[in-house]
């Protein structure tokens, strides 16, 4: 199943710089593992915002929830999920 996700990152301004760097490094490692596994086929920066649009390809809502709640930045993000269904006008390819 495909899901369109918007993630807005809200890191505390007073976060310790080492803690911030560690969080971001772990987030990158986590998301790149899922990208390599084909579960995170799109990851786009929203221009001008500390936010991204992503498309995740997972089995069901439960896997989606597990994946999202495992994000190192999860406690610092607002996440909006839109489930995607097939469009009848879409051509193959
Ligand atoms: O910077 C972001 O948009 C948050 C994020 C999600 C996956 C990743 O590597 O960073």
UniProtKB/TrEMBL annotation:
One of its GO terms (molecular function) is muconolactone delta-isomerase activity. It catalyses: (S)-muconolactone = (4,5-dihydro-5-oxofuran-2-yl)-acetate. It is an enzyme of class 5 (isomerase). Its EC number is 5.3.3.4. Pfam families: MIase. Residues 1-89 form the Muconolactone isomerase domain. Keywords: Aromatic hydrocarbons catabolism, Isomerase. Pathway: Aromatic compound metabolism; beta-ketoadipate pathway; 5-oxo-4,5-dihydro-2-furylacetate from catechol: step 3/3. InterPro entries: Dimeric_a/b-barrel, MLI_dom, Muconolactone_d_Isoase. Homodecamer. Belongs to the muconolactone Delta-isomerase family. NCBIfam families: muco_delta. This is Muconolactone Delta-isomerase. It comes from Saccharopolyspora griseoalba. The gene is catC.
């Amino acid at each position: 199943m495909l899901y369109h996700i918007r993630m807005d990152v809200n890191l505390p301004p007073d976060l310790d710089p080492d803690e911030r760097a560690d969080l971001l490094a772990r987030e990158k490692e986590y998301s790149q593992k899922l990208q390599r596994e084909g579960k995170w086929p799109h990851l786009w920066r929203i221009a001008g915002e500390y936010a991204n649009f992503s498309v995740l390809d997972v089995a069901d809502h439960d896997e989606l929830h597990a994946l999202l709640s495992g994000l190192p930045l999860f406690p610092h993000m607002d996440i909006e999920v839109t489930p995607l269904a097939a469009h009848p006008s879409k051509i193959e390819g």
